[in-house]
C-alpha cells in the first residue's frame, strides 16, 4: 500500500493500474475535517500556558485531502495525501485525466503529441502505438517495476512518462 | 437511489460541502469508477484479447459517487449522491467538479505567503535555492 510523496508519481502509477484493470479500479477522494490536536503545554513555562491554550482554541479546523486508487481484484492500493488548498483543482483535473482510461478512451496526451513534434520523434511515437497494442502484457509487467528505482531517477522518468 | 443528472449532482454536492462548512469534523468521500452495470456485454475473450475490458468496443460511462460517510447508527443522516458521466462529457464535468471541490474544501491550508516573505528577509541565499 504505497503512499506517494508526489502527486505526479501517484498519477502515473494510478494511470498504469487503470490501464491494466479498467473495470474494477476505483478512485476515492476523501476530504476530512479534523479538530486540531491540542498540544499539552510544557509544565516548565507556566506563564505561557494561558496564551498557548487560547491559541489552540482559536486554531481553525484543519482539513486534509486523501486520494486512493484501489483495485479490489488485485488488491493494489495507491495513495496520495495533501493538506494544501492550492493543489485541489490540479488534483481534481488529475482525476479527470484518470477518468479517460476508466471510460476506455485513449490517452489525451498521445493525440496532442501525435500532431505536435511528429518530425522530432517519429520512432518513439511508433513504438508507443506498438506498446498500446500490446498493453495486455505490457501494463501489468510495468506495474511490477520496483518503486524505489522510480523514486531515485524521478526526474528523468517523469519526463519520459509525459512524452 | 437512482442516479442524478450531472447538474443536479453538482447542486447537491455544493449543498453537501456547505453542510460541512464551519464544522470542525467530518468527512466527504468522492468516488469514481467505470460504470459496468446495465451495459451491453463485452465481446467474448479470444486468444487475441484475453481481457476484453482493456479495449472496449466503445467508451463506457463513468460513475461518480459522493457521500458524507455516515452509516450504521447515523444511517438517517447519510447523504448519498451518484451520477453517471458520459465519456464525451468528461472534460466539462471535471472542470466544474474541480471548481466545486475547490470552493467546498475550505479547511485546507491556504498558500502561506507571509512565511515566505519573512524567510526571504532572513536568508536571501536559501530562498534563491528554494526558488530554483
UniProtKB/TrEMBL annotation, chain A:
Highest taxon of the lineage: Eukaryota
Record field: compositional bias (Polar residues): 22-32
Positions with biased composition (Low complexity): 44-54, 122-149
Segments forming domain SRP9: 6-102
Pfam families found in the cross-reference section: SRP9-21
InterPro entries named in the record: Signal_recog_particle_SRP9/14 (IPR009018), SRP9-like (IPR039914), SRP9_dom (IPR039432)
Record region (Disordered): 21-54, 111-163
Protein known as: Signal recognition particle 9 kDa protein-domain-containing protein
UniProtKB/TrEMBL annotation, chain B:
Keyword Cytoplasm belongs to the record: yes
Keywords attached to this entry: Cytoplasm, Ribonucleoprotein, RNA-binding, Signal recognition particle
Compositional bias (Basic residues): 112-125
Disordered, as annotated region: 36-58, 108-132
Subcellular location: Cytoplasm
Pfam families referenced in this protein's UniProt entry, alphabetically: SRP14 (PF02290)
Function comment: Component of the signal recognition particle (SRP) complex, a ribonucleoprotein complex that mediates the cotranslational targeting of secretory and membrane proteins to the endoplasmic reticulum (ER).
Family: Belongs to the SRP14 family.
Oligomer status and interactors: Component of a fungal signal recognition particle (SRP) complex that consists of a 7SL RNA molecule (scR1) and at least six protein subunits: SRP72, SRP68, SRP54, SEC65, SRP21 and SRP14.
Name of the protein this chain belongs to: Signal recognition particle subunit SRP14
Biological source species: Apiospora phragmitis
Amino acid at each position: 500500500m504505497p503512499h506517494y510523496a508526489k502527486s505526479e508519481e501517484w498519477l502515473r502509477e494510478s494511470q498504469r493500474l487503470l490501464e491494466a484493470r479498467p473495470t474494477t479500479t476505483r478512485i476515492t477522494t476523501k476530504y476530512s475535517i479534523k479538530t486540531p490536536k491540542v498540544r499539552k503545554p510544557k509544565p516548565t513555562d507556566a506563564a505561557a500556558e494561558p496564551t498557548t491554550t487560547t491559541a489552540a482554541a482559536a486554531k481553525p479546523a484543519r482539513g486534509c485531502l486523501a486520494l486512493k486508487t484501489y483495485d479490489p481484484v488485485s488488491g493494489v492500493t495507491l495513495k496520495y495525501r495533501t493538506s494544501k488548498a492550492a493543489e485541489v483543482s490540479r488534483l481534481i483535473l488529475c482525476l479527470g485525466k484518470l477518468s479517460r482510461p476508466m471510460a476506455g478512451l485513449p490517452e489525451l496526451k498521445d493525440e496532442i503529441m501525435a500532431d505536435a513534434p511528429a518530425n522530432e520523434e517519429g520512432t518513439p511515437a511508433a513504438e508507443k502505438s506498438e506498446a498500446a497494442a500490446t498493453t495486455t502484457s505490457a501494463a501489468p509487467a510495468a506495474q511490477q517495476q520496483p518503486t524505489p528505482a522510480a523514486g531515485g531517477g524521478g526526474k528523468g522518468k517523469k519526463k519520459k512518462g509525459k512524452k | 437511489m437512482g442516479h442524478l443528472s450531472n447538474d443536479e449532482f453538482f447542486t447537491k454536492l455544493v449543498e453537501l460541502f456547505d453542510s460541512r462548512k464551519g464544522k470542525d469534523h467530518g468527512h466527504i468521500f468522492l468516488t469514481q469508477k467505470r460504470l459496468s452495470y446495465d451495459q451491453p456485454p463485452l465481446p467474448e475473450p479470444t486468444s487475441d484479447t484475453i481481457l476484453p475490458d482493456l479495449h472496449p468496443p466503445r467508451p463506457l460511462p463513468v460513475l461518480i459517487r459522493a457521500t458524507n460517510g455516515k452509516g450504521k447508527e447515523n444511517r438517517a443522516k447519510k447523504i448519498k449522491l451518484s451520477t453517471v458521466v458520459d465519456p464525451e462529457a468528461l472534460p466539462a464535468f471535471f472542470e466544474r467538479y474541480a471548481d466545486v471541490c475547490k470552493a467546498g474544501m475550505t479547511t485546507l491550508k491556504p498558500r502561506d505567503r507571509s512565511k515566505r516573505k519573512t524567510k526571504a528577509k532572513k536568508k536571501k541565499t536559501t530562498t534563491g535555492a528554494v526558488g530554483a
